[in-house]
Write a structure and sequence with these properties.
297 residues; globular; 2 domains; seven-stranded mixed beta sheet; Rossmann fold; four-stranded parallel beta sheet; Hypothetical Protein Tm841, Chain: A,domain 3
Amino acid sequence: MSRIVLSTSSSGLDDMDIKHNIELIRLRIHINNVEFIDGKNISSQRLQQLMNEVSHSPVRTSPAPAHEVAMILSRLLSQDVKEVFITTLSSQVSDSYQIIKQVADSFQDKMAVYVYDTKDLNACEALLALEADRLMQQGHDMLDIAARLDALRRSHQMLFVADDLSYLIKNKKISGAAGFFANLFSIKPVLQVSDAGQVLPISKIRKIDKAFEYMIDSLADIMLRQDSFAYVLSAGRPDLDQYFLQMIKQRTGLNSIAILPVSAISLANHGPSGLGLCVFKGDVPAAVQLFQATTIG
């Protein structure tokens, strides 16, 4: 039986040398009303340059259109694919799940399609997609795969901070009211993904270095556990990355940690600066063995 995993996340799947069978349903980035396709005709590095050089340039994101999802499934059907497992960005921050689910339902009499709402953001979605791909290749039932991803999602914690909240507000990832008051008072809120998949502010801090300290101190005990996997989400700012890594070393004693680059779509959503700190506790995806830890100098 021919089976395949599809994913809406390019984080870690485009930018890292990881062997997988996953096909991407690529999201869209709009800059000055020009549409780009995440990871295809615009990279996170190029988007970083554009956002820094043209700071007032309108940048927004959108899901892959329904007709494109239908074309992908039609092509797979013509290739005699019988089962498709699709992971999506949290339905609380993107319409991707609803669009893909609606298209998938129209194919149910032709092929088995399971659409899984990760209730998380791009980097975690990529790790869950890699886990789904591994289990698919091993012949696991799609319901069992979904149950496994549920367990991993419950073990995952993500904290992140963005220096400029205007991108998150514009792309409706946090409420306009929360963002307005944060920007008004120069607050750098630490943000967290809730169990339901919403992006919520959990701490109001005025300086970004204090926000970094808060994230590290909140997860330090978990990061040091033998049964955990911690990683940093990098937006591609070497200065912030090095500052954050040194702070991790000073406050936890860790000498190395994995760094995952965020995708262009993530960068478009949260802006050109900021960092994330994530950890799987107790239950860890098999794919983490493929990530090489970066030594903190």
